[in-house]
Amino acid sequence: MSYSYQINSFEQYKEVYERSIQQPQNFWADIASNFQWRRKWDKVLDWNFEDYKVEWFKGAKLNITENCIDRHLEKLGNKPAIIWEPNNPDEHHRVLTYNDLYNKVTQFTNVLKNNGVKKGDCVCLYMGMIPELAIAVLACARIGAIHSVIFGGFSAKSIADRLQDANARFIITCDGAFRGGKDIPLKSLIDDALESCDFIERVIVCTRTRTPISMIKGRDVWWEDEIKKVETLAMAPAPAEEMDAEDPLFILYTSGSTGKPKGVVHTCAGYMVYTNYSFVNVFNYKLGDIYFCTADIGWITGHSYIVYGPLSAGATTMMFEGIPTFPDAGRFWDIVDKHRVNILYTAPTAIRSLMSYGDEPLKGKDLSTLKVLGSVGEPINEEAWHWYDEKIGKGKCPIVDTWWQTENGGILISNLAGITPSKPGWATLPLPGVQPCLMDEQGKEIEGAGTGNLCMKFPWPSIIRTTFGDHERCKKTYFSTYPNHYFSGDGAMRDENGNYKITGRVDDVLNVSGHRIGTAEVENAINLHAGVVESAVVGYPHEIKGQGIYAFVIYNGTHNADDEDLIRRDITATVTRIIGPISKPDKIQFVKGLPKTRSGKIMRRILRKIAENETENLGDTSSLLDAGVVDEIKKGKL
Ligand code: 6R9
User: Are 180 and 353 in contact (CB under 8 A)?
Assistant: First the structure.
């Protein structure tokens, strides 16, 4: 079965797109009429990109969980909502039907209530990929609490920063998480974070790994005990709180080119409408399809396309606890085979990594159920695209190359599976309602085919509303570079047919294995090492990760000075401690000086070229203060 707003042909896409641009308000009002509202909106859209403010479906009242769960119960109650595949293939998988999900979410909402959580409170979730994470996310949304999910690869210090920034009062975590051959000590990391966060009132701990953990009386409680309390009290399933369209739904931290990560805020109505619309249309989802997005819920892809988009569409969404290479590089294909997966959505870095194992892991795996393949997170190189197409899709599955960002809430540029044409390495066309454009360095819009900085001229329903606690930062980051436009930070090419190819970030943000990492953040962490004077971090092409982290470091410490490798490991350990293992530098080169301009600015452009091995072609170096520094760095290149 399909959806009334599902686009069925390229011709129809063109018509729908045209209407969405000519009459955006009517267009989105029609889409929104497919949802369950407690009260309809007074106005579809109010917007201002100059003094940034956007409001969608103003005046409407709703709860997103009624749309993700309650409204499906009558027809889909016994259908699987979530299929969970554990890290260890020998452990049994779990299936939660929509009825199960309703029971568990309403029950856990009561747990939150009993623990004093109220509408508007911020709840931080630091959990592994188990169904309880999705349950906790939805329970927060049901009670109207703002969730802030933190990915399990962040350090205690990063957690503490996020807790402080969001004024969180509650934490939901697990004793630990299984990821491949590793156990991640989640609760212990939370304990470390809480040493500097005495404002946290309650930590709810869900059992997963049975790792020994500390439990502090009056602060820490077990998930399972709290559920028992709710059962003993025989509390009725918790009703959903009535939310305003523009009430915040969640905060998700993401890296930018400067300083600390920012808390991207998404709100209830627009986010719901757009994630649902884009999910149904990009993947061409048909009721009954088994859909598998391999992302972690700690990232935006997991929020929008494991939880909210699929569940609001009554889909069956998979959650996978583990990693693509555990117990071996055939794991994704085992999962596709075992669960008869129809739609697979993953990242180029995973594809490249699995590609490197050759054909062996594919042997004997039945992938014939696959209909649609998706890619997200970074540009997909043609080699990976063709491998994905031939080996996984057997040449019969459209590949959707979906471009979007944490700040966008949902996919903005992508082909629609089987409906609009694909082009290897190209994200292709904007979704209905999305108005991209390319700008040159002078701030002039580029017409026709060309290359420039990717911007948006008009808001879509799930556009970022603010950066938590600092609206000025939001305005400055996204709406000041090009007046009256949203600036993505990405560069792109456009062909004569209006297709877009995203070339990558044009700012100081790296994309390592599909994870966004700010170079300034990594530099700040390296500079905290006692022997480091100064550092500069740039990206370089990495075969599997897309980009690797290359650090140039001025070191004057005396300790272990004769053992460069040990110093490198100390620096790496420092970065892991401050940010987390995802930001570890791949290469650390010790240098005597950094190339600077006369005004003292590091010339990263030059360092980037050196890291990319393009030492012959450094471009204009006339503003360099000391050209000798560059020669020295070139000689020491790793
Ligand atoms: C969804 C997500 C956003 C950055 C974005 C861009 C890169 C994402 C891409 C892509 C080329 C694609 N990116 N999808 N680049 N083609 N299909 O990844 O969000 O973590 O915020 O990262 O990822 O550089 O600016 P987020």
Answer: no
Q: Which CATH class is domain 513-635?
A: alpha beta
Q: What is the CATH number of domain 16-66+265-501?
A: 3.40.50.12780
Output the CA 332–ligand 1 centroid distance in Å.
22
Domain at 79-241, CATH from 3.30.360.10, 3.20.20.80, 3.90.1150.10, 3.40.50.12780: 3.40.50.12780
Closest CA to 489 of 501, 481, 498, 497: 481
Predicted confidence (pLDDT) per residue in 562-610, tens digit: 899 999 999 999 999 999 999 999 999 999 999 998 888 889 999 999 9
The reply to whether domains 16-66+265-501 and 79-241 share a CATH topology is: yes
Name all residues whose Cβ lies below 6 A of ligand 1.
Answer: 254, 299-301, 376-379, 401-406, 427, 488-490, 502, 504-505, 511, 516
Residue-wise pLDDT for 131-180, tens only, equals: 999 999 999 999 999 999 999 989 999 999 999 999 999 999 999 999 99
What atom of ligand 1 comes closest to residue 411's alpha carbon? Answer: 1
Nearest to 88 by CA among 297, 323, 350: 323
* Ligand 1 midpoint to CA 378 (Å): 5
Minimal-distance CA residue to ligand 1 atom 23: 377
| pTM of the complete model beyond 0.90 | yes
What is the Cα–Cα distance from 44 to 56, expressed in whole angstroms?
5
Q: What ipTM was estimated for this complex?
A: 0.99
